Amino acid sequence: MKSITLTNPAFRYLEEGFKEWLDILGYSHTTIYDAPLHVRELLYSLEVGGITHIKQLDSKHIIAHYEQLKERANQNSGGALGNNSLNKHIQAISRFLDYLRQVGRLELSASPLRNEAADSEPMIILTEEEIRLLFEATRQPYDNNTLPAVRIEAMQSRDRAMLAVYYGCGLRRNEGMNLNVSDIDFDKSLMHVRKGKNYKERFVPIGKVALKHLQEYVYDHRPELLFNTKSDALFISQQSTRMQGQSLLRRLHYLQHRTENANLIEKQIGLHTLRHSIATHLLTAGMKLESISRFLGHSSLESTQIYTHLIGQPQKQSFTNIPRYEKQQLHEDEL
Predict the structure, then answer these.
(1) 118, 135, 217, 236: least buried by Cβ within 10 Å?
(2) 236-256 pLDDT per residue, tens
(3) Which fold has domain 128-334?
(4) What is the DSSP letter of 142?
(5) What confidence tens digit (pLDDT) does each residue in 281-290 have?
């Protein structure tokens, strides 16, 4: 939990060292951010229990901490922590023990914890109407009047480009985050995904509406965010650096709440939700599973078949008017 503060300077040092160790080993940005927070909870429980030195850490302390975790409320959704959340704590503790062994701080052989059975969580799919509301939210008056109008317009255009990438093109979170302007061929309406899952590259077709949003952002508004600095990154932050996944996610959540739609606001959505949604919308529009699989960059049809259970349900839409995507964009020959 972010609100926890460690008073033991040695424990704070270990948390920072663990974070740096994860970064050096090349773990994902999410792991580098989340795992130290989970470890902080363990260190805090040691403090509360009167443990002052990491060499005092024993299996019984880890087990006691884990039992407390299973009783702790989920601060995001209420209730207890789900198995998936518990497993993230288990993985973080296991990596922390690896770190302690490698730096010679502790010789505890292995974590006494074993992964819980994974939760079966329903896939969240947005309707086409909800997608339309997200696009509309990018054009609402900005609630921060301290920024210049040109800066606000640039951020709103960037939001539309973000929706075009993650919904219109169905990219994964890291694929969109790592996009460069040079990866977009505006003449051929193609996006070159160079850093796909398992290091696989692919070309993704860009529909006319998505292409329009990207062109407006890249040529008309992105220079305002760069402040005369040089970067090939597509998504530029207010600090003129490449936006990271968490920053893009915050922008999506900002738009979600700007819709003022109660049903949409209640949904726990992420950037992957936009990818799931376009896949489902394409499937309900009649596109072949093989074409959708290529569009998403799946290695096998089995991965794409998770969307087939939605066929025939009331969520089925026409996909002709939100946000005015042309039939041509959906033609399977383009995929």
Answers:
(1) 118
(2) 999 999 999 999 999 999 999
(3) hpI Integrase; Chain A (1.10.443)
(4) P
(5) 999 999 999 9
